[in-house]
Amino acid sequence: MLKHRGFPGRLPGTDFQFTIRRPNPKGVTPLTRRERRSDRKAADRRADAAFMKALWECFGPEPFERGNLDAGRLSWLFGREVLPATDPFDAADYEAMLVIDERIARASFPEAFEG
């Protein structure tokens, strides 16, 4: 499992995890598309925006390996802002390649692209 050095481990001051420390011994947690509802808590929306900002700052528009990125946090963006970069795509593989859909990501999280 590739460890993304320099990527934030969590949202500062919270328990919202962005990366994992070691591979899951029971198997890789697959990425699944999670629906974001309009009534989500503000803290959850801040975590999504901060994670998107970290992804953009670290990888930009280039494809990247899933590696040690947290499956739960990625799943909130998967299928919309973060897409599979290869076909076929294995959602339960730490070496799976992903890419940011910049157009959708900028529309969903404009604050992540400021500055």
For the biggest sheet, the summary is: 3 strands, antiparallel
Oligomeric state of the chains in view: single chain
Please indicate the percent range of residues in DSSP E strands (runs of 2 or more).
5-15%
Global Rg = 13 Å
Total number of helical segments?
Answer: 3
Mean pLDDT: 94
Can you give the helix content as a percent range? 25-40%
Which of globular, elongated, flat, extended, rod-shaped describes the shape? globular
Largest sheet: spatial strand order:
1-3-2
Distance between the termini: 31 Å
Helix-strand pattern? HEHEEH
Number of strands: 3
Residue windows where pLDDT falls under 50 for at least 5 positions: none
Find the structural class using helix and strand composition.
alpha+beta
Give a verbal description of the structure:
The protein is 26% helix and 8% strand. The chain is an alpha+beta fold. The chain is globular, with a radius of gyration of 13 Å. The chain starts with 41 loop residues before the first helix and ends in a 7-residue tail after the last helix.
